[in-house]
């Protein structure tokens, strides 16, 4: 059976009904009136014929079989690990977790926020620092973020020079080299064994466990750096920190690394959650998301994202954070892994891993093989003059991958799944004899001065859920607190939340995909590279560009890669002065933030009254900028939800001025099969696979943001971070060659099952759904912008401002009241304050669309009652929403409306009701008293709730007011 009817919500009868409501005879007429004729592609996409779910899974099985699953002991920042089945089934494979959105509406996100807070708490404890963020994209980009953070925070330093330990992972050095060059930071890579190099500096990056496996003490270099006015960041290993002295104890300001080995599969390079922790005083420069604790309207502890004024959707080019910069789902897995094993279990794993490495070292030494370092955690570097290739090949013959560290050295990294038999097989590859079981590695213990003596993971969350029964119930309890796509439509404009089909999701857990190391030999990864080549070619066809790179592991990184391509293209032509990028005022906030990371100056172009780019202002800005123009970033369809007719003219004007055109692909769900950015004037676009191509959001990551470019920009696509030259000249934007490859099978399956006609039908149905909602609500909440034909694209902006002015009820009040109706709110106040931007997607059927329409019309009636003076605003059901079961079942009820109206505003809610776990969260209080660790159990006591900010453990921080 065709997959398409599974993906599209409306059936044929529902489609006809919706077309009547919008005033179009058929989908052809609707699309013709909505999409400008001069951008229509006019030819079908050249894609393979669509397959059924079974056929596509079988085809992908054949591709996966071309990968060779080995025992992975390569290391270099990637550790083989064990994902507990309880976490794989209940998180990674559970739509309650993977279909949720970024928790900007905290009242319906308490479960995922608590899980992320658990991750933060684990990172804080293990690094010995005061607070940690809720994850970053990968270790290499996290180190880059740490360097930029030190540059922002070190106000005393005038230097633009940072010193980095030469023992740092090579992929980190590659990414860091490009990022530093882009913003004019001088990067000095040095052997720090004898001290810091001479000269001024603003920061130092130390590596606690080097790529060569050596573990070093940090305190001496930290003190030296501080004495010279520099801040210190330490790249470290979370599992090693169960044994080693923490960076915080040794004076570090920042600690950074990957949480991959906490139960997250190798995934051929990602997605993996990185972490960044810091000391008190640096929190307002912290990148990424930060989960904090506040209180709700009843005084109960409640979680929320803290310090959002750092975010680019508020501060744009002045932001210190980018909302795309996170891997929430994988951070949740890592935090749950810490809770599953607890401090004793994690330490036992670490001791066992170190014991295997010590056993290997002992066996090599006995055989006369020189072990380069005697202080190591999990990685042994062996000197084998002229024999490295032979040893690596011999290990591969035994089913084991080890790392060639030059012609004379081989590196071997032990991991959680490995055992003594693996060690003995590696020894045999070296030509050494197997060791006995009697403590063969006893002579390779870590010295006492490197070992930690303090306790960690002392919060009850890390001991309460140790059995599988307890873990399963805890995860179910958390999921029940949330609203995800498995419960309801998530009508977020600009953040497409469409079906993540089970058939699309299933392959990511196959060992042939999940258990492959990103640095495995190419003859072991034939299937991976075939899948990626096919996907890149399909995306190239869909967008009309010349080439695509899937390396960027978030939309923000795709933007950065595209802007770096533009910048490097101009530099290649000698146009060093072209450093100004034009960005319409309505553009995604990520655009401006990414432009700054590419060292471009942002100039804002005004929006015309109809929501389109103001062409007169554009002409004036082009004239004013002159030869400094690098290009323009436009979103198409526009962020206002319309197909702008003048897009080709805008592109032509920028080209005539010598600039490049960046078409933000966030809204590509309205273009597939209808128009191609690479054909109507774009030079470069990024695509959101976690939107248009069905990779789920997972609470705010995993994301993939491939960059697509025209022919002249192909040489400037992000390069391989593992290239022979170190990759520093290739400007990689993530640490793995193919970024977050582990989730690419999802998009492969989507395109394989839909084909050209299915992708086109998806776009047409998305346009129909948005216009249906717009038409059904036009008399109560008119759509702010429409195209010349009176139609919107795939989303519509509902204008609440007139009724807000009459009633005082805000768009935020409406969002909170929608929770009582069982809906995730639309996008609030973006791109226009006082409005809601709605994107229904093609996957919602007519019944769900009508349910949303009914909720919005009922809320309009509630707002009207306030406007007409029937009820005071502060006493209204809107201002006091959402309503928890605890509030509704209290013995006393003193509100101006009945309990039934609060709980069941529509009759059908009595059949299925979502109960929010908390009332409206106090945002300001949470920022004034910044608490970013798990509150004690007493904070939730039913006999007297206290502010979690007043009772949280000593590791919490209070922000400067």
Automatic annotation (TrEMBL):
Residues 6-430, 459-719 form the Glycine cleavage system P-protein N-terminal domain. Its cofactor is pyridoxal 5'-phosphate. InterPro entries: GcvP (IPR003437), GDC-P_C (IPR049316), GDC-P_N (IPR049315), GDC_P (IPR020581), PyrdxlP-dep_Trfase (IPR015424), PyrdxlP-dep_Trfase_major (IPR015421), PyrdxlP-dep_Trfase_small (IPR015422). Coiled coil: none annotated. Keywords: Oxidoreductase, Pyridoxal phosphate. It catalyses: N(6)-[(R)-lipoyl]-L-lysyl-[glycine-cleavage complex H protein] + glycine + H(+) = N(6)-[(R)-S(8)-aminomethyldihydrolipoyl]-L-lysyl-[glycine-cleavage complex H protein] + CO2. The keyword Transferase does not apply. Its EC number is 1.4.4.2. The modification N6-(pyridoxal phosphate)lysine is found at residue 691. Residues 763-883 form the Glycine dehydrogenase C-terminal domain. The glycine cleavage system is composed of four proteins: P, T, L and H. PANTHER family: GLYCINE DEHYDROGENASE (DECARBOXYLATING), MITOCHONDRIAL, GLYCINE DEHYDROGENASE, DECARBOXYLATING. The glycine cleavage system catalyzes the degradation of glycine. The P protein binds the alpha-amino group of glycine through its pyridoxal phosphate cofactor; CO(2) is released and the remaining methylamine moiety is then transferred to the lipoamide cofactor of the H protein. Belongs to the GcvP family. This is Glycine dehydrogenase (decarboxylating). The gene is gcvP_1.
